[in-house]
Design goal:
247 residues; 13 helices; 66% helix; mainly alpha; 0% strand
Length: 247
């Protein structure tokens, strides 16, 4: 199993000292704005019919970007749009820039019927912002663009455990919800996959120990303490960001 570079793992105390925090944005406000930005990415991506892997890549880029830059300097709509463009290129699911701009404008203005004329000032503002930010995003990511997601690890783990289809579907949904959180810059994909499966098993009342014995988490080379902590973070979003999670 491969893992992400160590430079992209952060403890909570480190995430309390991001560039946004030095601009007076509290940790709680940053988490909320990150979640709003990720909701924006997911909403735009669904309208563009982008695959889940592309949306997941875009959100990882988004979370990594704000470790290096402030929400006060870069609005999450603008960076969200740029992450969509870059992720669609990297995942080879490209969409026309014109279409990305129009859907981003629709979601930003909450008007799905909005169509920007290509010679309009607003269209060019979106275009220039996205293309200008693309270079800044690439530099913030240190040009490390290949992302390993938890989905493949989850399916492999469920198969090895002989878990039910419902268990796999529920855990998959929890991974999708985790995109709104900072889990992807807190833990590697094997921990996220295992925590999503653990939470799903509790939700469905499927006994993981009965499926694989006491140390099932060793199948993905995970520490159970990390799984419990990641599971807590995963579940906390439903109380901390209830309205965002329903969108």
């Amino acid at each position: 199993m491969t893992s992400r570079p160590l430079q992209w793992y952060f403890k909570k105390e480190e995430l309390c000292k991001t560039p946004s925090s030095f601009d007076g944005i509290s940790y709680e406000k940053e988490l909320t704005d990150r979640a709003k930005g990720c909701n924006f990415i997911l909403s735009v991506g669904m309208s563009l019919k982008l695959p889940q892997a592309t949306l997941a890549t875009a959100t990882v880029y988004f979370h990594r970007f704000y470790v290096r830059h402030s929400l006060k300097e870069f609005h999450y709509y603008d960076i969200g749009a740029t992450c969509i463009l870059l992720a669609s290129k990297i995942e080879e699911t490209g969409r026309k820039l014109r279409d990305i701009i129009n859907v981003c404008a629709q979601k930003a203005q909450k008007n799905d019927k909005l169509i920007l004329e290509e010679d309009s000032k607003e269209f060019w503002r979106w275009r220039d912002t996205i293309l200008f930010n693309e270079e800044i995003l690439l530099e913030a990511l240190c040009f490390e663009l290949a992302i390993e997601h938890p989905y493949r690890i989850l399916l492999s783990l469920v198969k090895e455990l002989h878990g039910s289809k419902k268990l796999a579907q529920t855990a998959w949904a929890f991974i999708n919800d985790s995109l709104r959180t900072v889990l992807c810059i807190t833990y590697p994909p094997n921990i996220i996959a295992a925590s999503a499966l653990y939470v799903a098993s509790k939700f469905l009342e499927e006994n993981m120990t009965a499926l694989a014995g006491r140390s099932w988490w060793k199948l993905v080379d995970a520490d159970f303490n990390d799984i419990e902590d990641a599971s807590t973070q995963l579940l906390d979003q439903y109380s901390q960001l209830p309205s965002l999670c329903q969108k």
